[in-house]
Design goal:
The protein is built from three helices and eight strands; from the N terminus they run E-E-E-H-H-E-E-E-H-E-E. It has 87 residues and is an alpha+beta fold. Strand 7 and strand 8 form a beta hairpin.
Length: 87
């Protein structure tokens, strides 16, 4: 019996004026609008660059933001209420 396939991991994160781009270990690059993540949108460029990558996602301690790889793949976005909603 085969186990559940593991999710790819983030290998790089970059930003442009409107989007966050996440490179994954399986070769894909995902782009999401910054408006989906108000803490990132409202954070400074320097604060956005101060992240660390874990096997489950990307974390910005100073911005109190965590973005999971699963959430990116499913199109979940952060809502001002703190709940997640599919795009």
């Amino acid at each position: 019996m085969h186990g559940t396939p593991s999710l790819p991991e983030a290998t790089d994160v970059r930003f442009d004026a409107d989007s966050m781009w996440v490179s994954l270990s399986d070769g894909r690059t995902l782009g999401v609008p910054l408006v989906w993540y108000p803490r990132l949108l409202n954070g400074t460029s320097e604060a956005r660059q101060d992240f660390f990558i874990s096997p489950s996602g990307i974390h910005w301690e100073a911005l109190d933001e965590d973005v999971s790889i699963e959430g990116l793949l499913f199109g979940w976005r952060e809502q001002l209420s703190g709940s997640r909603q599919a795009a």
